[in-house]
Design a protein that fits this description.
six-stranded antiparallel β-sheet, Phosphatase 2c, domain 1, Phosphorylase Kinase, domain 1, alpha+beta, elongated, disordered N terminus, 3 domains, 36% helix, 24 helices, binds adenosine-5'-triphosphate, Transferase(Phosphotransferase), domain 1, binds manganese (II) ion, five-stranded antiparallel β-sheet
Length: 714
Amino acid sequence: MGEALPVDYHTKHQANTKIWEISKEAAVAGKFPISKSHYSLIFIADAHWKIGQEKMGLDIVEPNTCVRGCCSSNSIPLHLPPSSFTLLSAIAKGAESVVYEAILDGKKVAAKKPILSTSEELDKFHKELQLLCQLHHPGIATLLAAHAKPPNYLFFFEFYEKTNLAHQLHVEEWIPDLDQALSIMLQLAKALQYLHNKGIIHRDVKPANVLLDRDFSACLADFGLAEYKKDLRRVSTVNWRSSGKPTGGFHKKNMVGTLIYMAPEILTKEIHTEKSDVYSFGVSINELLTGVIPYTDIRAEAQAHTVLEMNYTEQQLTSAVSSGGLRPVLAGIESGVPASMLSLIQKCWDANPQNRPSFNDIVLELDDMLQQRKKMEKEDLSLHQPPISHVHQVMDDVNNLHTYQEKINWSTQGECVSKGASFGVHSGFRMWLDGFDDPLAYHLVLSWGSFATCGRRESMEDMHFLMPFLCNEKDVHAFGIFDGHRGAAAAEFSVQALPEFLKALGSMCSPADALVEAFVRTDVAFRDELDSHRKSRRVIQKDWHPGCTAAVALIVKNKLFVANAGDCRTILCRRGCPVALSRDHVASCPEERNRVVSAGGEVKWQVDTWRVGRAALQVTRSIGDDDLKPAVTAEPEITETVLSVEDEFLVMASDGLWDVVSDMEVTNIIRDTVKEPAMCSKRLATEAAERGSKDNITVIVVFLCPVSTAERVY
Ligand SMILES: Nc1ncnc2c1ncn2[C@@H]1O[C@H](COP(=O)(O)OP(=O)(O)OP(=O)(O)O)[C@@H](O)[C@H]1O
Ligand SMILES: [Mn+2]
Ligand SMILES: [Mn+2]
């Protein structure tokens, strides 16, 4: 056994103190490397890597170097008698190595056997070994021994029972509580702080390279890409010259495995710095909090490949991340994650490396959060504050996903605000009805129904209302769908507020004007409400700008008014053929794109299509979205249709339906379904789900003539 290892072990309180780690035997034998008086502190390491070695009792055979003589260690045996180890089953097959469960000197260990077919790969083995011999930290996977002589090249590591963090999150679907998550983050941050203080950049920080022990304590592993910062310029240049591609695991196996953790500057082929590790750390800890694979909305790995491949190509993602500012969906404050942690994550993945904190800062911040939590635990939480909910409790409760910190009930808010506007008095629709007083006009016989499903999403952000006989008026009917994004708040608010505004406006202006005005007032009221919650700090998540699209159909006698803002769609079936009563307001529509741009908005091709602003919104009109106002207007487009005996039914639906079923198919499906509006709605939603719609799906069907007639029409 070696006597002592000098390490720079910086922590919050011991910054810049040179500390010596010494093995227990050396300490017991009094073999200190230098006289105590020279140093303020002697640190006897109790990290498990040492204990592991003590149990091992493997002899170091001098000279303890690799076959080339470039790797050496005074504590880690570098060549072993073949009888001292046995490889058992393979536990992981990477692009660069196979990792086996193994027995080394009677103890269960992990043996990493690199694939060495070229001389470069052999060089790489030596480099990784040189590096690993220098690393001694409780947050770094412990190298117990190595075998660095032909024909066997092997690394032996401490065995981590729970394998890696990616496996736990996406295969085991493990949901850590906040304390577990915080402790993993801190262990990782300390390991990276240690590396950076040694001048080493890891370059492959990701959950798959975080190993977990039985008690979920975390270790950073896989130094296959790690480099001394001073060598990086040369290494990177050589790599790019030889492959034309950036290094960093970019092109090995499934590109998303690593690409999604790569900082924008790396994607544009700049040189790695400490700050690119900080970026990868940010993406990784957000993944730990959300349990969701970055740039998808899925948890389980089994589903990952197809969806990832469908959503983005390598190039799309590269350009969206590096020039479009795209980032994974941030963990929600509703899951109990403290706002300070969310803002730390955002700082870590800032586009400008200089704005990212260093690991010294990160360790301090995480440490503070940990102390805070401990303090809160001590004080009686139940007295004043609800206990911080564990992430999984909220995740399990789909309906809670978008209720924010103090649980603002947006639908109650919507009701109150709009009732206040109409003073709770409704003076009737005389003006509307008198306006169309033609005794010979076609008389509608209505039946209506709806169906709404969350689909494959984790939460429901669609809302709708069915209000036949509005205010008990036999000839006035209203139906509406709201499709929320960035949370359900705007949709929940609007489904209450908009019909109230509409009722209040019924006595003041024409149906078309009333619809426009109701949309605009709902939007203003919602944004005001959100603002006041921000001021009163009930909403503390910065950059939370919920919105919703909206479609409302208003029938007054034989006239149908359809108001639309966004990509919900309304069609009318006339003599068996679909007639569009609304136009989708999306950035891929040139007119809308021009309108947004002339209103001062920014439209860019991002990921897969045209999108608006930093938020990368696909729709160009909506209620809410206050970061994109006024360009993304709430003002609807209105169509006005005189209904006649030729008109059979109306279908309104959120884009979850229209994404996968065409207007014509919708009419055909209704033709083949029992003429019952709720059944037809359900049939359409089911069809959309079966065709792979990934969104919430809401469908409203309104028959405009007696069902027997509808049946006869076909
Ligand atoms: N000490 C260990 N204990 C338990 N499992 C381990 C250990 N070391 C590695 N593994 C498992 O093997 C996997 C691959 O290990 P590692 O990342 O070191 O290899 P690699 O070939 O460099 O992989 P990659 O293809 O990600 O670069 C890990 O994600 C982990 O699941
Ligand atoms: Mn790995
Ligand atoms: Mn690797």
